[in-house]
């Protein structure tokens, strides 16, 4: 049998009409090792963490990113997120299906965020300095995740909020998921702070736009950070709300620089000039997130394989 | 006298009134003739002549449908000559005049697909579907472009829709549908579809895909048998041979055979990084650490860097520690 193989192979080499390029050989090896890696038992490979950045509705791009990553077979051991990244991360960790997340991206009305988003609410906001309540959003998330607690999530998850009184970073990793999610996306200046254990909590993006350190503290050896990258260059804000959101974005970009350095790999989804509260563009954001992740997928796989090389060849 | 004049005058009047129509008839027959000539040139694979004739034609005051035919012939000629950028320009120009023409748009989408401009192909196919939601060509085009672009779940949806709509039993369609499912980690569905494709047409690629699916399902025995079959179907396929060698070397029990396969390949391609890496894997599996390290050094010393070399460097670095 072996002789037959050798004979056939020598004949094949003589014809040699299907020679591979170096790039094709690299792809072949990467795909093989990747499949071997994702089949490794959890205790025989490094722990993988994913952190999702804030970014307002631009953060819907995380849905597209996660979809591509799941199709690639990437195992996920821990997750963290801030603001919109927290919402997507929580839904994902709770096992909400991709179809449902797509549906939320396409159909979620802005009124799901607050019961005050009415004419009366707007008048009170403008003339009475009364911020919108985000309680309705907490109920909405609670309904989506089925009232689950952090302790019983499929994938261990934590999210970040900020205490507006002290400036401290508050990490939610226990109790009802929806409460933490609400606190993490509670945009200051728009939503009233969430009162929780003597604290007044606002959007975590104020102190930690992309919580890489938290996912490491949870136990991740290798961290993938996904950043919904804005583009400020195309327009100057023209409204008070526009300025509030732009300031949050700029602050976020500043905070992200450090987080990026401590992640093992960063996927920057170039969401362009989709505005932080542009509800019409959420599906475009999902699509852009998927595209950015597909573009970086091979490089991400190579990075993780190089990190895990000793596990693969054990 | 007066009657005679009237009789003479009537034909003149008739001619004057119908001159435009008569000349138009002449124009029309000339146009038809020119298109026929262009078609003949196209059939004779004289593409530059086809393009020349039809470019002249587009400048004439011809009816819309004929101008469209001219654009199609020009684009088809450029496609036949593999001058895709020019084909794209021609079709884009034609679409400015006929924005609702699905045939033109489908051709443009196909050209984008051929040129690996999959996002653009997807956009064009979607525009066709917006006008004609059951356009099977657009659905298949979308499925294939989605697969190439890496949107595997979406590709699966479109392949499914295409098969439901057309009752297609094309081996190629089933193969691509199976491939999309495999990439989306739906191994059971992928296997079923790949086996249907294999029934229609037995190809090495289909066998290779089936082998990969078996391997992902943990059915190693069938995986090895199938990949061997795939390679025997076309012994010139180095990708299949190297994949087979890689699997064999990585499997501890088969590592000696994998080592032989790598060595055989290296006889013809002594500096092939992948074959060297397969040799390294086999040595590692056989616990021949010294030889494994030497092989890594061989890879590392080769010129040019890629993933295989970087991996070898990293492994060397780790052994030094």
In terms of per-residue confidence, which ranges of chain B show pLDDT below 50 for 5 or more consecutive residues?
19-23
**Number of helical runs of chain B?**
17
Helix content of chain B: over 70%
Total strand segments of chain B:
0
Average pLDDT taken over every residue of chain B: 90
| Major beta-sheet overview of chain B | none
Give the overall shape of chain B, derived from the CA principal axes: elongated
The global form of chain A is: globular
Poorly predicted sequence stretches spanning 5 or more consecutive residues of chain A: none
| Helix/strand structural class of chain A | alpha/beta
From the N-terminal CA to the C-terminal CA of chain B, the straight-line distance is: 122 Å
Bin the strand percentage of chain B. under 5%
* Radius of gyration of chain A, taken over Cα atoms and rounded to an integer in Å: 22 Å
Order of helices and strands of chain B: HHHHHHHHHHHHHHHHH
**How many strands in all of chain A?**
8
SS field, number of helical segments of chain A: 12
How can the largest sheet of chain A be summarized?
Answer: 8 strands, mixed
Structural class of the secondary structure composition of chain B?
A: mainly alpha
> What's the helix-strand series of chain A?
HHEHEHHHHEEHEEHEHEHH
Helix content of chain A: 40-55%
């Amino acid at each position: 049998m072996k002789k037959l193989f050798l004979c056939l192979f020598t004949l094949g080499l003589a014809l040699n009409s299907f020679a591979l390029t170096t790039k094709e050989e690299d792809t072949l090896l990467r795909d093989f090792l990747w499949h071997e890696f994702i089949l490794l038992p959890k205790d025989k490979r490094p722990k993988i963490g994913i952190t999702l950045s804030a970014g307002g509705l631009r953060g819907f791009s995380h849905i597209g990113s996660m979809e591509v990553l799941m199709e690639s077979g990437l195992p996920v051991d821990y997750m963290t997120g801030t603001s919109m990244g927290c919402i997507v991360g929580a839904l994902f960790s709770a096992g909400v299906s991709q179809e449902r997340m797509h549906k939320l991206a396409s159909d979620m009305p802005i009124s799901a965020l607050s019961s005050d988003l009415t004419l009366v609410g707007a008048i009170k906001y403008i003339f009475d300095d009364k911020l919108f309540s985000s309680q309705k959003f907490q109920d909405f998330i609670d309904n989506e995740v089925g009232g689950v607690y952090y302790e019983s999530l499929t994938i261990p998850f934590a999210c970040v909020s900020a205490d507006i009184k002290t400036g401290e970073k508050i990490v939610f990793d226990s109790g009802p998921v929806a409460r933490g999610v609400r606190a993490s996306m509670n945009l200051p200046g728009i939503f009233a702070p969430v009162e929780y254990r003597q604290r007044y909590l606002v959007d975590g993006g104020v102190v930690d736009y992309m919580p890489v350190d938290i996912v490491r503290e949870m136990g991740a050896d290798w961290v993938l950070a996904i950043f919904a990258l804005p583009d400020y260059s195309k327009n100057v804000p023209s409204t008070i709300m526009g300025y509030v959101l732009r300031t949050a974005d700029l602050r976020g970009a500043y905070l992200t620089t450090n987080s990026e350095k401590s992640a093992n790999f960063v996927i920057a989804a170039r969401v362009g000039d989709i505005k932080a509260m542009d509800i019409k563009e959420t599906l475009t954001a999902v699509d852009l997130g998927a595209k950015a992740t597909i573009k970086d997928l091979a490089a991400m796989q190579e990075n993780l394989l190089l990190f895990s090389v000793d596990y693969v060849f054990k | 006298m007066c009657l005679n004049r009237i009789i003479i005058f009537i034909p003149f009047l008739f001619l004057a009134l119908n001159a435009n129509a008569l000349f138009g008839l002449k124009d029309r027959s000339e146009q038809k003739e020119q298109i026929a000539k262009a078609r003949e040139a196209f059939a004779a694979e004289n593409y530059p002549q086809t393009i020349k004739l039809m470019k002249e034609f587009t400048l004439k005051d011809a009816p819309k449908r004929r101008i469209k035919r001219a654009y199609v012939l020009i684009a088809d000629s450029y496609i036949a000559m593999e001058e895709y950028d020019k084909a794209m320009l021609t079709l884009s120009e034609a679409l400015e005049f006929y924005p609702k023409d699905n045939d033109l748009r489908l051709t443009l989408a196909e050209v984008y697909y051929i040129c690996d401009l999959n996002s653009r192909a997807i956009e064009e196919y979607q525009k066709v579907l917006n006008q004609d939601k059951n356009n099977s060509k657009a659905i298949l085009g979308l499925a294939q472009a989605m697969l190439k672009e890496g949107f595997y779940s979406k590709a699966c949806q479109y392949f499914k829709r295409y098969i439901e709509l057309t009752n297609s039993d094309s081996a190629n369609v089933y193969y691509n549908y199976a491939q999309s499912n495999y990439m989306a980690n739906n191994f059971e569905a992928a296997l079923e579809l790949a086996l249907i494709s294999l029934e229609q047409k037995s190809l090495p690629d289909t066998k290779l895909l089936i082998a990969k699916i078996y391997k992902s399902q943990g059915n190693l025995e069938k995986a090895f048998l199938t990949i061997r079959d795939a390679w025997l179907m076309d012994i010139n396929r180095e990708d299949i041979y190297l994949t087979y060698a890689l699997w064999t070397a990585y499997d501890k029990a088969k590592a000696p055979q994998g080592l032989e396969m790598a060595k055989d390949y290296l006889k013809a391609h002594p500096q092939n990084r992948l074959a060297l890496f397969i040799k390294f894997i086999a040595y590692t599996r056989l616990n021949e650490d010294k030889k494994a390290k030497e092989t890594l050094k061989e890879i590392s010393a080769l010129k040019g860097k890629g993933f295989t070399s970087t991996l070898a460097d990293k492994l060397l670095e780790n052994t030094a520690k």
